[in-house]
Amino acid sequence: MDDAPLFLPRPEADRLPEALRSAGYGRVLGPVARDGTVVLAPIQTWADLPAGLRDEQAPGHYRLVPGEDRRCFAWANGPQALKPLTFAPREVLWRARRDADGALQFDPAVASPEPCAVLGARPCDLAALALQERHFLHGRFPDPAFRARREALFLVAVACTHPADTCFCAATGDGPGLPRQGFDLGLTELKAGYLMVSGSDRGRRVLQSLDLAPAGKAQRRQARAALTRAAKAQTRRLPGQRLQAELYARLQADHWAQVGERCLSCGNCTAVCPTCFCHMETDEPALDGRDSTHLRQWSSCFNAEHSFMGHFVVRHDTRLRYRQWLTHKLASWHEQYGRSGCVGCGRCITWCPVGIDLTAETAALLAEPPHGTAS
Amino acid sequence: MGPHPDLPWPVRVDHRVQETRDIFTLQLTLEDPGVRAAYRALPGQYNMLYLFGVGEVPISVVSSPEDGGPLEHTIRAVGRVTRGLERLRVGDRLGLRGPYGRGWPVDAARGRDVVVVTGGLGCAPVVAMIRYILDHREAHGSLTLLQGVKHSDDLIWRRQYRRWARQPQVQVLLASDQPGPQWPHSVGNVTVLLDRARIPPGALALLCGPEPMMKAVIPGLMQRGIAAEDIFLSIERNMQCGIGHCGHCQVGPHFICQDGPVFPYPGIADWIDREGF
What we know:
heterodimer, A: 375 residues, alpha+beta, eight-stranded mixed sheet, four-stranded antiparallel sheet, B: 277 residues, alpha/beta, Elongation Factor Tu (Ef-tu), domain 3, Rossmann fold, 2 domains, six-stranded antiparallel sheet
């Protein structure tokens, strides 16, 4: 939806969460400064947002620091993306009940999430959500819990005017500006207020209810300039958007062992990655033996469990697990979902305890000569 | 919201056979008559079997799709779930969902000679296909079965092999790396059987078993006139969901649970028996 942007002056910003509640979204999540970072949490008013804070991100490093003005979105991202809101970290799939005769009955878990508006979805988060939708909803077996949560979400996207040093969405093509679709309302923050566009019919209805004046020419120019600056400020990049041939030709590269020496195999990168979808299924039997709960919970290709085969582990060392993660993310995602699994958010770099930087590792791998090929 | 795509159905153990010390077969009947009538697994597909309170495992269906009787699953007790399944007896209940995945090329096999090469318990995923071919004997050419086991005591279904060998146009050759006393068959791995086997050029080859074994036998099959695209392999990995969601079974770009477990050789050639994949 390409209507000319409207302008929400900063002093009136509280009208937005009010309009969302009036539109039926009783639960409004927004960015909140907590535990030394920015997390998505329930908000009541604009005053709950992290005004005047910036994030300082580097490999293995995250700090919130004072910003230059009272902007609320002068940070890039926190450890959470939208992922936990649609793909729950831990959820019940079904329950098995056993009666006195030993007969079994299976009852599906029914997810009925309440309508929820999220303020502050970043362009990289939207790109990641689109990828998760391809995985969980567009295959042969659409996931009902994911679908219910996704349908309950109203997304207020906010363009990234202040990327972190770890960001490289300009190189992956997923930011820093708003995408064409995949959100309901889109904001670009200026010092004096917000340019607003709608990205869906329900977004348009909320926007109309705000009855705002169109943004002025100068405001539109400022927003464009801010996004151009944001793209130019990004120094990290991957050496291309389609790397599968290059990476498949380097499955035997020496560098895998080198990075494997540094990697702790902790799985932080997969937990903060907005596209990683691996999960394990597990059972929790009740103590009285009458029923058992079958759950899924986030898992990681950095765990031994991930490739456990009953009598051996396919990826028995960290070198092989890092290779699995990186070649999946940047190579085999293309075959599986038509694009790279990396959206340039940089979270895996920031939240890695030893500061492993996938852009640097990929460059180091590609600096080695190709060995053989895998098609 | 629709039903969950991975909700099991209750099944009952109808019959149990102890095949070897740690291999057993469960014949399972779906308790719901409607589900039972609608269920049909193609040869090479698998079910997720659920042991109450413990968890699920992927197990191939051994019975022929047209058999119409209980669903047969042959299982080796190696892990937590399979060791629990081993303790089930006739009348016990468990959960079953499926069938999942792509099985053997049933249509392509029509009118063709078929060579089956298996190793270890690797035979189980292909038994349904062998039974299907024998159920439709006239619709297929010759059938050659080459089975290798590490120790001769690991050989299951001796009687079944003898029965199959008596069928018209069927050759059965067995080999063991570590033969016990009175082993009447060949000694060595399954590749030693190739020279004695009837391998008509242009045949379809179905392979199942450890990946190094499958990789070792492929050049011999191709030298004898079997095209790469006529070779099919059944691949095994950690599978927890069976529906392409959980991510455990990935081998390169392939989700074994849905894209496989049976693959044409050219599609999986770069990934099999490769450390870490």
